[in-house]
Amino acid sequence: MQPKLSATVMKERVMTALAGVSDPEIPTISIVDLGMVEDVRVHEAPTRVEVDLVPTFLGCPALAMISQRAMTAIRTQLGLSSDQVRVVFSTRSAWDTTRIHPQGRDRLKAFGMAPPPKVSASEFVAGQTSVACPFCGSEDTKLENIFGPTACRAMFYCRRCRNPFEAIKPV
Ligand SMILES: [Zn+2]
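A: This is the predicted complex of the input protein with zinc ion.
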């Protein structure tokens, strides 16, 4: 029998577990970095964990995979059975790109992807924003194609280092 964990310790371990769950499309960024974790509730007796996630359009084809991974990570981290852990997607609040943590923005850049610029979606589409190149940092970049490989990304070209790159569209 495992020693009982306090609610505080359980919550910390749940966050550790979730920080290890990556976005299936961008493996260097976690669902915590993306600001997808809306709420974590723990009950000491009987031991139970409930997590609310906010669906992002970034991982939308993979939401089922994300909740499955989150569930497995929590169970492994806390030694719980499947009926003690519940991970659901909440529609109470909408995800938007301002929810991405500063660390998540850095990790996107390290992945070679420009984090979403802090402008409105319409300003972005109109090209009224400069997006810094994730490779060289230059703002001398040009929007090539508003439709990148997925609905959430656009293709840019850096005039300084001549690299094409993807940028996350603001929503
Ligand atoms: Zn560049």
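The pocket of zinc ion is lined by residues 133, 135-136, 138, 158, 160-161, 163 (CB under 6 Å). The chain has two domains: 7-97, 112-168.
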